[in-house]
Amino acid sequence: MLSTFALLLGDDMRLLRRYGFLAVIYGLLCGGVIALLVPVLTHLLAGQVDAAIAWVLALLAGVAASWLLRRHVERAGVRVGVAVLQSGRHRLGERVARLPVGWFTPQNTARVGHVVTDGMMGIAQLPAHVFTPVICGVVTPLVVIALLFAQRGSLGWIALLSLPVLASVFVLTSWIARRTDAAFQRDFAEASQRLVEFAQAQSVLRAFGGEGGSTRFVEQAVERQGRSGLRLIVLSSLSAVFNVWAVQCVFAALLMVSAAWLGDVLDMGVAAGDLSAVLVSMLLVIRFVEPLLEVAGYAEVLRGAGGQLRAVRALFEVQPLPEGHSAKQPADAGVELRDVHFRYDADAPEVLCGVSLHVKPGSMTALIGASGSGKTTLVRLMARFFDVSAGAVLMGGVDVRDMREEDLAAQVSQIFQDNFLFAGSIADNIRMGRPDASDDAFMQAVQQSGVAEIIGRLPQGLDTPVGEGGARLSGGERQRIAIARALIKDAPILLVDEATASLDAANQAVIAQTLVRLRGRRTVIVIAHQLSTVAMADQIVVLEAGRVLEQGSPGQLLAGQGRYAEFLNQRAAARGWRIAGATAAGGSL
Ligand SMILES: Nc1ncnc2c1ncn2[C@@H]1O[C@H](COP(=O)(O)OP(=O)(O)OP(=O)(O)O)[C@@H](O)[C@H]1O
């Protein structure tokens, strides 16, 4: 717990240390106030009112001091909370910003969102609202134990020995509840995923009358979530009951010993002084148990907080890509892959198995291959979304792992399928490609990308807000803005995923024109889906199951009568089946 706070707070950890120190002092002071009750009660029970007055005054001073200190503790706790929300979020943000781009899957992005919002808020509230009663609930009983020892050894021993027993019970119950909670969170996430999937797939389900199967999956997931939710409720309430019950057992044991002592005093007619000692001890027993009951009540909250802290810690534990520090600049806009191997996870199969490739500066390379052959992975490695498992990716002769992030970013621009837009205006999103671009360069990118046609239709033109993630625009419009952003960046190497699935015919044409325009002026590496694109490439690379099957100019590959030629022949044979007007040059792969 503390180590996660240290990760979040950094230098501000001193605030937590100060808060902890004050909370311990406050717990000791509360114990001190209880200690003052002993002489007050002893004198009052003995009828020595005058002697009691000084102690009563000391007691009142102690109560006032602890009230004042409590305010300080609370303020210190709030300061820690504010530091968690400010520097903690900042530190987490810095960490997340250094993670590999490829790590940002929808699942991981949702994780970050959850941690930064609910998780951090929950953690920020811990010091002020949870830690203070818990720290006092541990420190104050320690003082009371010393007082009990002074009153009667047996009571002191029972109280002292009860602490490790209670700690074990709390740890055991929270371990059981934590395991059940983990199962519930897993089933909850799965049920939510199924429900979202079900909602998103409505058009398909209704068109194909396939609701039955999908509803069954949703129902099964919701049923599983219901079962694990019920188990969690039962076990967590049982844990809470068991914790309180354990404290009550300690209370019962202390009361029994006190009652036996009282019986001895009454039976044996010992001096009245002993009777007041028994009564004072009984009061101490009550003051010993009270804070422990409070701690038992917080066990569930602490367990929940533990989950949030673990989620934060897990984010800090994701390893960022090592930073490159070489000041060596790429010699040209060439790209080279040297015997590249890659797997997404250590225990996953290899997705790329020894790919070697040389892309000349200013040339155009078309990557083609069946779905899953590794085309997207290959261009992701060029943009250093991940690092290769073995081999090397070089830009202008420099290994991308040695390049500073800004140098690599300046070298490469991308037009991929999952283009993200920020919640600014269309102009903001385009200018992001190169904030210092001239107005001429900006307008050129707007024209060339087809954005001019979009803004002509919108009353606010370039100032139209795109909404969160570009939600107010169509997929095609988002794509054009992303193309404009890539064009304005003017990086020497352009990586393009010509994914036809997400492009309408007009946008396909925009991409095609962009490629034609840039051919020979920039190094273009394109995951090609259009035959026209493949035909104009200087080099075609055919991938199959993570290996380069064929590589060469369109003419060479055709002459080689390999997979590419086979594919073109199949296309030619099938052309008779195609709707009039579709030519090889206009078909899609
Ligand atoms: N983020 C990921 N985590 C784990 N495996 C992945 C991930 N992305 C892709 N893969 C796997 O890597 C392999 C290659 O995928 P890749 O997307 O590179 O192929 P592709 O040729 O681009 O396919 P497509 O044309 O369908 O986009 C596939 O088996 C895929 O399941």
Automatic annotation (TrEMBL):
InterPro entries: AAA+_ATPase (IPR003593), ABC1_TM_dom (IPR011527), ABC1_TM_sf (IPR036640), ABC_transporter-like_ATP-bd (IPR003439), ABC_transporter-like_CS (IPR017871), P-loop_NTPase (IPR027417), Type_1_exporter (IPR039421). It is found in: Cell membrane. Keywords: ATP-binding, Cell membrane, Lipid transport, Membrane, Nucleotide-binding, Translocase, Transmembrane, Transmembrane helix, Transport. GO terms for molecular function: ABC-type transporter activity; ATP binding; ATP hydrolysis activity; ATPase-coupled lipid transmembrane transporter activity. GO terms for cellular component: plasma membrane. Residues 21-304 form the ABC transmembrane type-1 domain. The keyword Transmembrane helix applies. It is a multi-pass membrane protein. It comes from the Bacteria. Its main location: membrane. The chain crosses the membrane at residues 21-46, 52-69, 130-149, 155-177, 232-262. Pfam families: ABC_membrane, ABC_tran. Residues 335-570 form the ABC transporter domain. This is ABC transporter ATP-binding protein. It comes from Diaphorobacter ruginosibacter. The lineage of its organism: Bacteria, Pseudomonadati, Pseudomonadota, Betaproteobacteria, Burkholderiales.
